[in-house]
Design brief:
Helix content is 56%, strand content 14%. It is α+β, with helices and mostly antiparallel strands. It has one domain.
Length: 205
């Protein structure tokens, strides 16, 4: 009887250890996935901001609109191809119809509408598992340089350029600090496994 009890105790202990190890693995993989996603958002923001700043200096806001219409989708496609994730920008009020938010993106952005920055003044971020997909989002607040093309007082020539490139534009009327949109990054199970060395099921709660 004591042997049976000892066996049960050992089995229970091993089960608890395995459960703790799995819990630790889930947490570690989630941290790694979030870090990789944040790095992609950093690069997207840096490269796009650099291109737009150069275009603004060379061609003014109306020229920057044309540059943005080409550069932003190209950057998203490049980062997606390099990482294996789906990298894009989205918004509640879109300029490019291809950036229309899905239900999850809309829900997260709606929770940020009144305050897109955290208590440290940094853009808010969110991550979660959704089925077998790891999702990450980071808020894009409206910066002063955005106002020439997205603000309340837009020059007529800039409005004309917006209409030419984005006939269905909804992304004007913003004030500094308001939520402009978000970076949105999704990793399916295969891409997450390649990026972290662990399958998505490992971090599925």
């Amino acid at each position: 009887m004591r042997r049976i009890a000892l066996s049960l105790l050992i089995a229970t202990g091993l089960g608890a250890c395995a459960s703790n190890e799995m819990s630790h693995d889930r947490a570690a993989t989630a941290v790694q996935a979030e870090a990789r996603s944040a790095a992609l958002a950093d690069r997207f923001q840096k490269d796009l901001l650099g291109a737009l700043t150069a275009a603004m200096a060379a061609e003014g806001p109306e020229g920057a609109i044309g540059v943005c219409s080409r550069i932003a989708p190209a950057l998203a496609a490049q980062l997606s191809e390099e990482s294996g994730a789906i990298v894009r920008r989205t918004a509640l009020r879109t300029r490019n119809p291809a950036a229309l938010a899905d239900a999850t993106e809309r829900h997260v952005m709606e929770s940020w509408t009144d305050a897109p920055l955290d208590e440290n003044g940094r853009p808010k971020q969110w991550s979660a598992m959704e089925g077998g997909t790891f999702r990450y989002m980071r808020a894009i607040p409206t910066m002063p340089m955005c106002l020439a093309c997205h603000g309340e007082a837009i020059a007529p020539e800039v409005r004309a350029a917006i209409r030419a490139h984005y006939p269905a534009d909804e992304a004007t009327g913003f004030r500094p600090g308001q939520l402009r949109g978000a970076f949105s990054i999704r990793w399916d199970e295969a891409a997450l496994s390649r990026a972290t060395g662990v399958g998505a099921a490992t971090i599925d709660p």
